[in-house]
Amino acid sequence: MPRHRVGFFEPSIHQLRSFYYAATYGNFTRAAEALSTGQPSVSNHVEGLERALGARLFERRPRGVGLTPEGEILLELVGDLVERVDRLKEEFDERCNRIASNQVRLVASQQLLLNLLAPVLMRYHKANPSVQVVVHNRARPEVFAMVASGEAELGVAARADLPPGLAFDEILVDELVLIAPPDHPLARQAEVSLADIARHPQLLPDRRSSTREVVKEIFASQGLELRIGMELERWEVIREFVAAGLGVALVPSFCISGNDTRLAVKRVGEYFPRRSYGIVTRQGQYLAPAARTLAEAIKSEVGRR
Hints:
This protein is 44% helix and 20% strand. By secondary structure, it is of the alpha/beta class. Strands 4-3-5-12-6 form a five-stranded mixed beta sheet, sandwiched between helices. A three-stranded antiparallel beta sheet has the order 10-7-11, covered by helices on one side.
């Protein structure tokens, strides 16, 4: 049920625009010029608004007009609205052109792009050659920020710390696994504990990695010290260094190929929280057909892993 009676206060957009420009310029004549109308029209719109609100919005000054305290309040309330209306045609054209050009903007971290999304994007491009997919490589906080601001239609990220206003459609639940060379002592154990892992130097991702923070927190919670052998930037590099016999590592299972005989893979998921990955969009956002089909392809193919 509406909280206020319909029609109780129905200002026209012309009244609000006249008020906004008069407040911005501090002058009715300059406001009329900006609106391509006459000064009497601006005055009539403002007077009608004042009558409807039962408050004076402007006070006369030697040069032009100034806002009353009530006018300041109204400007704060309607400023964004008028600016959105004034940008409506430009934004509408931009979005229509984006739909017509079949462009999709996708943002995800380097690790997800390389280990999860690259094969999907290759097949999607082959099936949809007319669609231009613009891919941005960003860390998770920036993924959220770009989707929230409209700089990207789709994001792919872990769900943790998802900001309000964003929607999340899960595509994968993953766990950490331990990887080691096949001849490593841990590879020959039937079961591996955190204490066992702590006795060996780890190959860790760099300090921007959220996985690194999870691993550190879990070890600290058990009173174990995490021995750092090397810090490396990408899961691919960590994987290759482990295969070369340079150490062991805890990595997301999605970055390990099941047929890589150079690595021994040990399940240790019971010690670490499982992580949810999904497609991030703005709540209530309209997705153009190209963006919808790409989102469906990602969900279908990654979900089958």
